[in-house]
Amino acid sequence: MGKLHEWIGLTLSLLGLLIDPGFGYYIIEGPRNLTVLAGSDARFNCTVSDGWKIIIWLFDGSPKLSVLSTGQIIQTDQRYNQQSYRNGTRFTSELIMYDVQLNDSGQIKCSIQDADDNKYAFLSVQVKGSLDIKDRNFTVRMNRTINIVCEALGWAPAPHIFWMANNISLDNSVYVTSQHQGLNGLYNEESILTLTPMTNVTVTCLAALDALSKPQYATVNVTVYEPSPKSNYQKEMRKVSGKKTPDKNLETQSHIGEVNYGYNPEETKHAEKMTGDPAFFTVNTDTYASKDLKVRPPSQAAYYGHHDGVPPSGIPAYPVSPRKIRNVTHV
């Protein structure tokens, strides 16, 4: 009889648990890890089975928002809100975090009352900074090695930087990247690409983050020119030198004539005394035309220039100012 009463009491207790509206509900699908950019909104879903009483959203263990089965919403932080969806016996609460910042990275928890079936997710907030190539004017000689510097400022975490040339990825052995973290928790990064272009090339520096759908990039065009051949320059210089040399020789030689051994300075002085005019002596241009003058090199002129006043044989001596000679016979 005693055992019968025990079985009856256990059965009634089980029936009471089965008919309890809170019995048997659970979290079907909890929130998932999320990575977003600072300044955007973060969204997390928590789906529970029918019969739930309350859903509580917590950030790093602190309650931020609660949803009651009656439809009432209790907010403890105005930056958090929610939207709800029902599909058959399933109920989904979507948590919305507005304008997330770097310090909003942490644990997100979905909890239901009277159950230990809690679900967790992690929020990672990243910061996209600036990206720029320092020098954008690259006009270089062919086969000359240059350094192109790409600078990323104010990122979190430090971005992954890589390079492309004409849309082809470059091996990481041709560039070096360094980084440091500032007091504000943001990273500054510098990447130096060493390149020896043989022709015009478009170089692109790219920075990637998980929160970016595609990398941020900066581009620069490198213009390559061929130097003028050295042999051509030397040829031009030789041409210029060749044109100047003959003119100089003619100018020098034009002042060199044949020595006049018939010139007598005493006669010139005598003529000056008689006329009082130094220009008394004139040259007969009809007799000595310019075409009759002979131009001789300096070496030959020096040879004929005897100091004894006697011209060499074969060279006639013409007096510059011939005088009339009167013969007088005395008886």
TrEMBL record:
One of its GO terms (biological process) is cell-cell adhesion. Residues 1-24 form the signal peptide. It comes from the Eukaryota. InterPro entries: BTN3A2-like_Ig-C (IPR053896), Ig-like_dom (IPR007110), Ig-like_dom_sf (IPR036179), Ig-like_fold (IPR013783), Ig_I-set (IPR013098), Ig_sub (IPR003599). GO terms for cellular component: bicellular tight junction; cell surface; membrane. Gene3D superfamilies: Immunoglobulins. The keyword Transcription does not apply. Residues 21-126, 143-221 form the Ig-like domain. SUPFAM superfamilies: Immunoglobulin (SSF48726). Its main location: membrane. This is Ig-like domain-containing protein. It comes from Varanus komodoensis (Komodo dragon). The gene is LOC123029508.
